[in-house]
Specification:
about 425 residues; about 50% helix; Cytochrome P450; alpha+beta; 3-stranded antiparallel β-sheet; binds protoporphyrin IX containing FE
Length: about 425
């Protein structure tokens, strides 16, 4: 294993930069390592008032684990219905509110979530996980031994969408089309993406699932689209808007997050060769390694809520209507919860990271996400001897997602 020779991709932003910081700006996250900022906020100003940004109002920045968990746990005090990420919260709402589980609260959320969880039945999941493991082996085998590959594109770029397409039983001939659209719809490729392209891609995905759902209503199978298309809540079928939005949420929630954690794992192995060796030699279990990869990479940087009434968070008064953002990236390095939090330790236990959130909106795809990462780690362990960084990783451009959209490496077989 050789250590990376390229200069750091992100520069560490010192705490003195706090007054000018704009956490809503994707460039902040793409260009800077915010670990010093998070450390200072956790210690000195854990519920921080962020100046107005992104054309919207001021918002709260929650950085300690305990406060983050409190917000996640209390949808009656901190609702997702006006959006659950800064981009939509600052624009005043989310058009899928009350329709898509992630931005719905109360009894309707519980029912939509029940339907979504039915789509992850053990039988369906077992088949999906089995295919993911085989795909991980094939993809790693195809690039192992080559002088260079882009791990983000050549390996991680294929696995999660394949798993979700298997879950939804998307026909093989449509998959490349969907992969292209989701890349654009999430808008994290770079600053040059036009808002129109993003909007168009989202609409195309929704239209695609509308057609697929109609055909599954006529000929249902055991897949997730059929589950949503034939489900009833209090005796009534879901509306087409609900079916389509929740199909889309599986791609939205599960594609890029998993990709980023896998790519981040490989980058971490190049930076921490002893940990790679420990995994390779079987000194640490794949299960603990998966959770440390999730904590270390924290693909979902933040989630957000809106205060439903005047309340207090860690003693700080928060007014009704205020936007409250919870920074998983900081909570997962909280020294009050994690021993030596800046150490990448694949054997870490306990490891109750917040990478999948917490409480009523806890990620419905957590089992699948873990299984994808486990499949990849097993494939790497079996097929690869050393991992060398061969170029400069390219960070994604997002205030919501964290990680690398390109990772040039050599996987030495
Ligand atoms: C919710 C992260 C994989 C689908 C969430 C939440 C987080 C998260 C933090 C909570 C959002 C909130 O509280 O507002 C991740 C990460 C993943 C991953 C880091 C991979 C490493 C997946 C997969 C799927 C998925 C594979 C589906 C195939 C969803 C859905 C929700 C959700 C539908 C909304 C649940 C609800 O609101 O009740 N995810 N996720 N995620 N995730 Fe994931």
């Amino acid at each position: 294993m050789t250590r990376p020779t390229t200069p750091p991709v992100r520069t560490v932003l010192p705490p003195s930069a706090l007054p000018g910081l704009d956490l809503a700006d994707p460039a902040t996250h793409a260009r800077h390592d915010l670990s010093e900022i998070w450390r200072t906020l956790r210690a000195e100003d854990p519920v921080h008032r962020h100046r107005p940004a992104g054309g919207g109002p001021a918002f709260w920045v929650v950085t300690r684990y305990a406060d983050a968990a409190e917000v996640y746990r209390a949808p009656d005090r901190f609702t997702s219905e006006r959006g659950n990420v800064l981009a939509s919260l600052l624009q005043g709402g989310d058009s899928a509110s009350g329709v898509m589980a992630a931005v719905t609260d109360g009894p309707r959320h519980r029912e939509l979530r029940r339907v979504l969880l039915k789509a992850f039945s053990p039988r369906v999941l077992a088949a999906v996980v089995d295919k993911v493991e085989r795909a991980a082996h094939d993809l790693v085998a195809a690039v192992a031994g080559r002088p260079e590959c882009d791990f983000a594109e050549d390996v991680a770029g294929h696995l999660p969408l394949k798993a979700i397409c298997d879950l939804l039983d998307v026909p093989g001939q449509d998959r490349a089309f969907l992969l292209r659209l989701t890349g654009t719809a999430l808008g994290s490729d770079g600053p040059d993406q036009s808002p129109f392209d993003v909007w168009q891609a989202r609409n195309d995905i929704l239209a695609y699932f509308g057609e697929l759902a109609k055909s599954r209503q006529k000929h249902p199978g055991t897949d997730a689209v059929s589950t949503l298309a034939t489900a009833t809540i209090e005796g009534r079928p879901l509306t087409m808007d609900e079916i389509v939005a929740n199909c889309y949420s599986l791609i939205l929630g599960g594609d890029e997050t998993s990709r980023l954690s896998m790519t981040g794992a490989v980058l971490a192995f190049t930076e921490h060769p002893a940990q790679w060796q420990a995994l390779k030699n079987g000194e640490v279990s794949v299960d603990t390694a998966v959770d440390e990869v999730l904590r270390w990479t924290t693909p979902a940087l933040h989630f957000g809520r809106t205060a439903t009434a005047d309340t207090r968070l860690n003693g700080v008064p928060v007014a009704a209507g205020d936007i409250v953002t919870v920074w998983n990236a900081s909570a997962n390095r909280d020294e009050a919860v994690f021993t030596d939090p800046d150490r990448f330790d694949l054997g870490r236990t306990p490891n109750k990271h917040l990478s999948f959130g917490h409480g009523p909106h806890y990620c419905v795809g957590a089992y699948l996400g873990r299984a994808e990462i486990a499949g990849l780690l097993k494939a790497l362990r079996e097929r690869v001897d050393r991992i060398e960084l061969t170029g400069r990783p390219r960070p994604v451009y997002s205030s919501m997602l964290s990680g690398f959209g390109s990772l040039p490496v050599r996987l030495v077989a």
